[in-house]
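Chain A, query sequence.
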Amino acid sequence: MQALNKQERKSAFFSFLIFYIITTAIIIFGVFFGTRLPLYQNEILQSKVSSFERSKVVNDNFTQKMNVITSLLDSVNKTGVQSNLIDGQINQKLSELQSYIELDSTYSKQLYRQTVAILYNRKDDKELLRLSANTASNNMEKDKIINDLKSKISEYSNALNNCQNQLIQLSR
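Chain A, predicted structure.
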């Protein structure tokens, strides 16, 4: 004995099976992408955090080296120091800092380059300041010598005038 609606039952079963497979596939895809997307976002955030930490380390190292150079620049014009030796140390530290910047691939490389350029300018200004201080003291010494010579000239001129007056009086 066979069911009268066998064909309809078969059609309903296959429809149910197709819809069940589609629904299950949608749920599986939803779960798969629902777990995959946070993992992908987590990888992106981890790379950004590691990039930030690396940038912070580079910034800390740069700041430490810059502070050493700044302290050398502050002490180069003090009295009783060998300015040539300190200038050599400053040049060495600045070249090390420049090469450190070039080796690193941070996003703020231009800022670091400008900072190093400012430090080079500051070093040059310190040298000019020392040279101008030396020339100022030399100029003061020269001015003193000139004033002494002018006073001697005026003394000799007065003595010459006195001798000429005496000569005129004696010749009369």
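The radius of gyration is 45 Å. The helical segments are 6-75, 83-103, 109-171.
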